[in-house]
């Protein structure tokens, strides 16, 4: 059963900045000279994802509109990150445009000034490009500490709570309204004798950190204290890590310490897990009858409020122009198109991600074409309203995930929560100090 | 005296010297040089002397990765040697469908390690994997396999043994085919039992071949990266993190090129030391000496 779209919620959600109403439409309608760089060729480096698929699917539209020839590749996330760092560091990139993940690469790219500052280029944009249409959350991610805007946001990925309505109904459990209720519901629904677990989530080191940080933020935690010191062994950190451990260890599957999102997804879509917290991009496989045994039975919920705050740990992707590109004009045209209203509406309609443009959430056609339940859209919209960066915005974020990921992993295997956080904080502090000096 | 008159051979070896310098000596010298710097990609390289090495010697995680490497290697060399030699002795006998079964036995060796690793990952899955299903048929409770820090290395060794025992079998089988008949005839005439023939004739004669297999396996086992990376990524926690995994993390996740270079140098010393040990044992095992 589809729930009615909570239109106001969605609008409020995306509208962290005040929305500027604009009729959605294609770029080609304006008098802007899209053919200015006709005949040029650019190389586009995309990360393997539904967003990458979408951009490649409609690439010809851009080529026809601009006369610019596009060569694009999709590279898996880890390999993409390695390739980009090595190429940027060499001072010559094989790509003119690159898709980046903000939570990992934002500070890294900023330090090297590897991406072109787009602000001067904004002077020459078509009216329908409309920069105010980007949500504040998206532009927050795209803007560096020194004010440079060296990418445009492509999508945001707030974490949501997937729940199996059938399992909840069978045990008469209601959707949780707080962190203790999540724990309570997981306990009631945990039924290992019948192969059902109350909760599933990421236990694998590194991948597991965002699940904990989401709880941590809800407990009122901050990654740094007022003095800029690492605050990852505070009472909030300990309480949230204990919650993480108890949920996964007591009501999760055996061997959860080795679970990444794919194992969690696999268990959930088999109908063997009652709850799963992860990124918002999993609706398409969950609603695909070829992959899922729970089509139509999935609830898409907003993260319940924590003891101090209601938070959805959020991550995001952007797309920008390499500083080493010799075709910056054509490359900028590509990212204008890629982050344009039409592509963002398509992203929404296909559930390929959560658009950063407010107009996408008002696009009736996109909403009508929605291939995933409206519940999903409502959850994403609500989550945007309570979105907070799910990881500290620092250069050594991979090291942060590694060190704290191992600590969380050790907790699942019986180690003391406070002790592990203390050790992880001590291990990571010098890494951070060295990187940020 | 001109060079041409005294050492004409120098001109013949020059191309090889140039190639070896370019592809082996220079990369090595450069790695050694980089290991003396504190250098993270995107940052300035700062000369650190032996700083990376002293840091590694006091780094618990690195030392654990060395221990994991040695444990994994010892098991992944010893088990295939025993099983591969036993398999060779069996396949050296004549029996029905021997050729077909020999072919089937070497199949794992021919498959791509990453593909194998993906299939084993699915088989190890505690809830949906076939291994726990098979255990349940035997009335045994489920195991967490690679998802347990206590079992992770043992499971990875199991995969390695499954894949590389056929290689040992092939080497030893080749050795069996080349053994002289005289010692066996002498043993038979002296009334030696089958066990005595195996223990005092076959195995000593085979020892040089087994040692060759051991050297090949040792180098392979020390280098193992693909299967471990795909199946456990060094986890849970750091329970199965070997030097290779640690090195990969430093170089390609943290971009700490100086530190990673130091790890490479330490690893190289370890590989050379262990290889020399085995070569020495091989020399000792030659039956004609």
Characterise this structure.
The complex is a heterodimer of chains A (437) and B (289). Chain A is α/β, with parallel strands linked by helices. Chain A has helices spanning 7-14, 50-57, 59-66, 77-90, 102-112, 136-142, 165-170, 179-189, 209-218, 235-251, 261-269, 283-286, 328-338, 341-350, 358-362, 364-369, 374-385, 397-412, 417-436, and strands at residues 41-47, 69-75, 97-101, 152-164, 275-279, 298-301, 312-321, 354-355, 387-389. In chain A, strands 1, 2, 3, 4, 5, 6, 7, 8 and 9 form a 9-stranded mixed β-sheet that branches. In chain A, helix 1 (7-14) crosses helix 17 (374-385), helix 8 (179-189) packs parallel to helix 10 (235-251) and helix 18 runs antiparallel to helix 19 (417-436). The longest helix of chain A has 20 residues, at 417-436. The termini of chain A are far apart. Chain B is built from 13 helices and 2 strands. In chain B, strands 1-2 form a two-stranded antiparallel sheet. In chain B, helix 4 runs parallel beside helix 8 and helix 8 crosses helix 10. The chains are: A alpha/beta (437), B mainly alpha (289). The interface between A and B is medium-sized, with 35 and 26 residues.
Short description:
Chain A has 437 residues and is α/β, with parallel strands linked by helices.
Features:
heterodimer, A: 437 residues, alpha/beta, 9-stranded mixed beta sheet, 9 strands, B: 289 residues, mainly alpha, MetI-like fold, 2 strands
Query: What's the CATH class of the domain at 62-177 and 211-285 in chain B, please?
Result: Mainly Alpha
How much of the sequence lies in strands of chain B comes to: under 5%
Shape of chain B: globular
* Average pLDDT level of chain A: 90
Instruction: Give the total of beta strands of chain B.
Output: 2
Low-confidence stretches of chain B: none
CATH fold name of the domain at 62-177 and 211-285 in chain B: MetI-like fold
Number of helices of chain A: 19
């Amino acid at each position: 059963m589809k729930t009615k779209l909570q239109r106001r919620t969605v609008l409020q959600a995306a509208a962290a900045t005040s929305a500027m109403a604009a009729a959605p439409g294609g770029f080609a309608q304006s008098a802007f000279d899209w053919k200015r760089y006709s005949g040029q060729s650019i190389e586009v480096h995309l990360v393997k994802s539904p967003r990458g698929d979408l951009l490649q699917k409609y690439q010809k539209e851009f080529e026809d509109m601009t006369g610019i020839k596009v060569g694009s590749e999709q590279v898996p996330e880890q390999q993409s990150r390695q390739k980009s760092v090595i190429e940027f560091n060499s001072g010559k990139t094989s790509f003119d445009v690159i898709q980046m993940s903000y939570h990992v690469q934002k500070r890294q790219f900023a330090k090297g000034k590897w991406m072109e500052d787009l602000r001067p280029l904004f002077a020459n944009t078509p009216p329908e490009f409309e920069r105010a249409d980007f949500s504040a959350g998206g532009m927050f991610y795209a803007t560096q500490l020194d004010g440079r805007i060296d990418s445009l946001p492509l999508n945001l990925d707030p974490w949501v709570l997937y729940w199996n309505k059938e399992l909840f109904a069978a045990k008469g459990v209601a959707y949780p309204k707080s962190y203790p209720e999540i724990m309570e519901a997981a306990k009631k629904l945990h039924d290992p004798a019948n192969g059902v677990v109350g909760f599933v989530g990421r236990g694998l080191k590194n991948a597991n950190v965002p699940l904990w940080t989401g709880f941590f933020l809800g407990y009122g935690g901050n990654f740094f204290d007022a003095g800029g010191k690492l605050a990852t062994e505070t009472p909030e950190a300990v309480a949230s890590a204990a919650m993480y451990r108890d949920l996964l260890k007591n009501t999760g599957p055996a061997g959860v310490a080795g679970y990444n999102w794919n194992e969690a997804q696999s268990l959930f879509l088999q109908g063997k897990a009652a709850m799963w917290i992860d990124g918002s991009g999993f609706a398409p496989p969950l609603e695909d009858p070829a992959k899922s045994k729970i089509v139509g039975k999935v609830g898409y919920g907003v993260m319940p409020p924590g003891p101090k705050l209601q938070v959805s740990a959020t991550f995001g992707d952007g797309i920008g122009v390499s500083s080493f590109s010799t075709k910056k004009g054509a490359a900028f045209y590509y990212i204008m198109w890629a982050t344009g209203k039409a592509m963002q509406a398509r992203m929404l309609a296909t559930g390929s991600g959560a658009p950063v443009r407010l107009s996408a959430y008002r696009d009736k056609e996109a909403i009508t074409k929605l291939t995933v339940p409206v519940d999903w859209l409502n959850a994403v919209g609500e989550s945007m309203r309570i979105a907070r960066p799910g990881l500290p915005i620092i250069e050594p974020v991979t090291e942060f995930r590694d060190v704290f990921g191992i600590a969380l992993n050790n907790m699942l295997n019986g180690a003391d929560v406070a002790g592990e956080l203390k050790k992880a904080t001590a291990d990571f502090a010098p890494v951070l100090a060295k990187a940020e000096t | 005296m001109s060079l041409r008159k005294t050492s004409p051979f120098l001109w013949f070896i020059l191309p090889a010297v140039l190639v070896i310098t370019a592809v082996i000596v220079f990369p090595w010298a450069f790695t050694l040089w980089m290991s003396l710097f504190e250098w993270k990609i995107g940052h300035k390289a700062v000369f650190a002397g032996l700083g990376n090495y002293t840091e590694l010697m006091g780094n618990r995680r690195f030392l654990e990765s060395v221990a994991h490497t040695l444990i994994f290697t010892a098991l992944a060399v010893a088990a295939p040697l025993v099983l591969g030699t036993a398999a060779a002795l069996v396949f050296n006998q004549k029996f029905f469908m021997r050729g077909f079964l020999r072919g089937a036995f070497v199949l794992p060796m021919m498959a791509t390690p990453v593909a194998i690793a993906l299939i084993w990952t699915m088989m190890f899955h505690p809830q949906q994997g076939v291994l726990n299903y098979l255990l349940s048929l035997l009335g045994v409770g489920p195991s967490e396999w690679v998802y347990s820090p206590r079992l992770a290395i043992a499971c990875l060794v199991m995969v390695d043994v499954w894949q590389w025992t056929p290689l040992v079998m092939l080497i030893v089988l080749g050795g069996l085919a080349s053994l002289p008949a005289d010692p066996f005839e002498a043993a038979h005439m002296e009334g030696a039992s089958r066990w005595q023939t195996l223990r005092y004739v076959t195995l000593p004669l085979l020892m040089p071949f087994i040692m060759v297999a051991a050297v090949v396996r040792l180098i392979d086992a020390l280098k193992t990266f693909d299967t471990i990376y795909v199946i456990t990524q060094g986890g849970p926690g750091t329970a199965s993190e070997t030097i290779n995994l640690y090195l990969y993390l430093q170089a390609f996740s943290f971009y700490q090129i100086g530190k990673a270079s130091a790890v490479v140098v330490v690893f190289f010393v370890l590989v050379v030391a262990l290889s020399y040990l085995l070569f020495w044992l091989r020399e000792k095992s030659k039956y004609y000496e």
